[in-house]
Amino acid sequence: MRLKSPTRRSARLLAVGLLATSLALTACGAGSRTGAATATKVACDFTNPAQPTTVNVLAYNSSAVDPYSNTMVSSCTHDNVTVKHDPIDFAGQVQKTTATLGGDSGTYDIIETYSFVVPDYASRNKLVALDDLFAKHQATYKLDAIDKSLRDAMSYNGKLYGLPMQTQVLTMVYRKDLFAKNNLTPPTTFAELRDDAKKLQDSGDMKYPIALPWSASADISTAYKATLNSLGKNFVADDGKTPNFTTPESTKAFEEMKSLLPYMDPQVTTFDQPKVQQQLYNGSAAIGIMFSGRMNDLVQQKNTKLYDQFAFAAPPSVEKGGKQYGALSVDGWSIPFNTKVDQDLLFQVIAASVSEDASKASIPAAFPARTGLDQSASPYAAAAEAAIKGAPPAEAKPWVPPITSATTDIIGSVILGKTSVADGTQQMQAAAEKVLAGS
Amino acid sequence: MRRREFWLLVTPSVIVMFGFMLVPLYRTVRWSFEKVEYGTPGTSVGLANYTGALTDPRLGRAVLFTLGLTVVVTAFCLVFGYILASLVNQLRRARPLVLGLLLVPYVLPHVVGGVAFSWLFDTNFGGIFNYVVNGITGGALGDPLWFTDAWPNRVIVALNVVWYMLPFAMLMILAGLQGVSTETLEAAEIDGASPLQRHLYVIVPSIRGVLGFVLLIFTMDVLRVFDSLIPLSPQAVTLGNESIMLYIYNVAFREGAVNLGLGSAISVLTIVLILVLLYPSIRNLVREARAA
Questions:
Q1: How much is the average pLDDT of A216-228?
Q2: pTM summary value
Q3: Which residues have CB under 8 Å from B132's CB, separation 6+?
């Protein structure tokens, strides 16, 4: 039973149609690999290399990082230098960073790093120390205006390994209209947060008033760490040998986290930050705590009709008088140890991308690392500043990333109620001890 | 064909197979006996990776989940692929259009299809499935926790795999149906065979080879399911809905240790498992090829 010729003709037409559509769709993406064409142009006056040089940049795409990477591409691609940056998500950046730093030759010449990973990479000599280059170009690019505490956050053993571009800090967002309607004030403790959420539930305004990024496969560990830090404990005691997971504070951290569950969507353990944003866009939640880089999206009219109903504040502390449920992350640029491109040229490229003009242009999408900038255009800047001041000090140690990876699934299991708090903390302790023994 | 022409034609395939299949296979087997970090030569650890894999309860859960998914999806797609192919086979002018529409899920990247599929069940993005079913049934479905309860999550994962694999089954079976002799079918009809009997006793035996091929491909493909789980089962590990491939990815790439050695050992064990499962299908195909 063979296909008759009209049918074959139609099948061929269909195949051609599908192919043409595929090509047309893929062609739409070609040429628009980044938003560099519309980025701010700044001075990027390196000494022109004798040979054509390509600088490959690895940086994830987000509204807070894009202004810097786009400026880098648009301003530093001239003469013999071509700066290339392909779009990638955060998970992709994490994997490609591991791969590019693995061998003697890598794929990238500039990589986006953040304070969480710098100690780990720096302790393994995967990044170039930038102190000499910083001193050499400090005056040209006014680098001393980059907040000293943020430079410290990108340092390890007193050496600078990343040039800070912007800060991300856990910041609280709330619906000012619903808070006003129910006579609520922004919570400063978890107890107040629960009270506010209960009142919103009781008023019938919101079934699940709180939305937090508690994705069991990733963000949940940030949430647990923020809770533990708020209670005054780090992952590992000051001796660098004893994990703190079996301490009363660790148990308390889990209890406090679980106490918020009645006020959150039952599937909150699948929520990453974009999903929390979506909850707020939809009006399904009234209070959220996310990194500050996500906040500007909430006040964009194109994203939600509730764009003018959001207000911002520093996040609450877990207990009265404690540190905030906070996490401070500094994003910056690093030079991988295995780049073949001139390091002086690379430093000037990254310095240009965090120059004063570039940093100004990143407001309000980002909270720049430079001090003295006018942030009045940013709706969340005051809240972010308060959050930075009240955030617990970062545990800048190389063991934090591997312990985080080793314990994330256990934390998720405890929050989901599949593992008891007692068993979970014991399992986390054992996993962390294994990491510390191997480091 | 002369020997020189033969080698001229065969050499590119041999080079491609060597480069893209045998070299990675060799590296995987070698790494499975080593502790490996990116960019550094591995150090031999003997059978430690295999011991680690076989004593990890996650591997058992992943194998169980993947096998269960393979059985359910394959059985469903064989039955409904056959029904669909029979219906499409009746069409004349509309066949290319219907075929084109049915093939869209198959040609769409799985992760893209998975994300769109997840939105059907995610109230954050409308959750149209709950809305429609509750509308029809007067709220009988309720509000299942599609992403955080193990069984509802298994259902949507299976539905998604069926969604993109069913067109392939249908297409293969349709090709088989077009090879069924019309004389035999007419003879069966004259002999008084009912439509169901014609399917069961004439058509299905005639396309047994095609069905065997579909079974073979499905066993290989569903056992390697991975990308659908990224959007559809964000809590796969905790729910016990981690497929073997996702488990390998998590061990070898995602989790902090980046344990390529252990990941390679699990990959080798998976290859053995797939070969064991495929043995009956391959044996039958070889037998039929010899008989033909």
A1: 92
A2: 0.81
A3: none
